[in-house]
Amino acid sequence: MSQRINAYTRQGVFEMTEEEKKDEKKVIIDEDWKQQAQKEKEILAKQEEAEEEKAGDKKARRGPLPKGDFAALVSMLVTQALFSLGLLEVEGQKKEPDLELAKYNIDMLETIEEKTRGNLTDEETKVLENMLSQIRMGYVKAAE
User: Fold this and answer.
1) 3-state class (DSSP) for residue 17
2) How many structural domains does the chain have?
């Protein structure tokens, strides 16, 4: 015996047998996708936070920058000259000497020496002279 079920549509009420109900397509509402989307959103947020922390850690590991003074300027040019001579390595990568660039950095130091003559303290003069002497010797060795 079939049981009658009342169903509502826009046209009104009609009766449907149990067999007709089984044949009817069912609408399944999947609530899991909402939860999955929320989880993915949270995972992405955590990944972004981790990346920001890593970027912050890199900045923090650098430490404070030194005071901007004459010795720091000379040191910066000396470091560039040493790197261009191939005497400094970055992350273990050996670089071929670039004598032209090294000569340019040495010339810059010589210009500073010439233009500041008589205006430097004894300590600043010694630093500049010592650094120029070391860089010139490094240039000669690299040029050989």
Assistant:
1) strand
2) 2
Question: Using CB atoms within 10 A of its CB, is residue 113 exposed (0-12), middle (13-18) or buried (19+)?
Answer: middle
Beta strands in the chain (DSSP E): 4-8, 13-17
From CA 67, how far away is CA 99, in angstroms rounded? 30
Query: Do 79 and 123 sit in the same domain of this protein?
Result: yes
Rounded distance, CA 78 to CA 84, Å? 10
pLDDT tens by residue, 31-54: 677 777 788 888 888 888 888 877
Domain of residue 80 covers 70-143
End-to-end CA distance of the chain: 107
The residue type at 138: G
